[in-house]
Predict the structure.
Amino acid sequence: MAAGEVRPDIVIYGNKTDSRSISLAQELEAELEPIRKAPATWHLETVRGRLELVGRQGLRFALNESDIERRLVGFSHSGLAKACGASRMPRILDALSGWGTDGLTLSAFGCRVACCEVVPLIATLSRARALIVAPQIRIFCCDAVDFMKRGRHEFDVIYLDDMFPQHPKGARPSKSLQILAALAGSCDFEEVFDTALNISKDRVVVKRRRNQPPERTDPAWSVDGKTVRFDVYRASSI
């Protein structure tokens, strides 16, 4: 199945006579319903063959493929690539993928990537972008801890990017992060982190704000960027 393995019961709303909307719904294995049936709460709509997330009072949000293309320029020298050892093309699990931007970039670069995202609306919007920029990626709509404990897949690197806490200076996060926070809720990061250490074959990479303290223990090493830091922990299985 192209571009992932999202299999929740998901409905998208659009023009049922538009071939682009019909094709997108088929690729996403989603049910297509007319716009007039769309709820007032968060839902997905097709607009000229593209998928958009729609909220209250007409709030609209879409993911941009150019974000991935732009990140691929010089990507091998980026902090994310260095922390994940991307040049060796490892098997990577983006366990808290959200919009999936980091996972999609790693996949488009050539790594073998799977993503976990528990919220169907988020996972489906991410998968729609993946159909264009990284159709080889696998996107699972499931709980990350449950997925890792099932042990059906092996990963050299498990990448963890939970949402940063509120910036100490009170700066508002970007629109994409505000919407992600509204939809996603929180997770038990310590459980995710411990499970990842036990499951990974090589390392666990945790993305943090540059000045944010690390997890319970100091990482084996870190890769600093301008605003973020990637902490690398050796897997327990090594």
Summary: DSSP finds eight helices and twelve strands in the chain.
